[in-house]
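> run fold Formate/nitrite transporter family protein
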Amino acid sequence: MSDDHDPHENIPSDAPGNGHSGTDTDGLSETMIKQINEGTERLSRPPAALVVTGVMGSLEVGVGLLAEYIVTTSTGSEMLGSLAFAIGLVIILLAHSELFTEGFLVPVSSVVAGKMPLHRLIRFWAATFTGNIIGAAVIMELLVTAYPDMHPYLIEKALHYALMPIDPQHVVLAALGGMFLTLVTRMHQFTDEVVPMIIASTIGGFLLSATGIVHSILDTLFIFGGLFTGESGLTFTDWLTFVWWVALANLVGGLVLVSALRFVQARRVVLDQKNGSVRTRGQAPADTGR
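> ok
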């Protein structure tokens, strides 16, 4: 998700990029400032708005899941089906919805820069995750009812994920799931143009579906689908056994493999923001007593 403001308005007057040198460092600084500002705005939203945004995110992923099923069964090509799944992530982008795993970079940057407290980030994650789970239940109940021919597909997927062992291979696959979606978020931060963002979301959606990675929200949709058919033999306990460690691995993968490196890359800007020496135009000095 991106803001509609001029990306140049946040460049500090004393930054090297103010002379329009066009260096990569200047671009990184500008992007990081925009990222911190957007993160602060997102963490300031009320919990109800965060939950609703999360519900919408899962509803839209469900559209992608349906597209994947239709294309795969019609063409026999899993790769084409994975490409069709990317529709869901494109809808999320254009509709300004949210998945839990999209919150591992932009909101975190606001906390790292000292603009928002940690408990706001935890609230953001919890509310978004809750909304995602509610949305997953709603969309899968609808799909199970509307597409009975889809039941065997959903049951097969549900059994695969719900009975997945907690071993090094699957933990790493879950960490990669968090990494891939956080990389999509990072690519979005480097442009305000819609077309490059759509391309980034398409890449992320394809990788999410085609590479066998494990994702707490997408795979929850599959498990709920199998549950709601009433034919899988699964219970909500099976889902709980799956989702806690996958969500944790997604979180670690996104934070460690993408976000932490991003903050090191732009550490000067992060430190300046934390010290209150870099401010957006017209912004009051940071409250050092926070």
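The chain has eleven helices and no strands.
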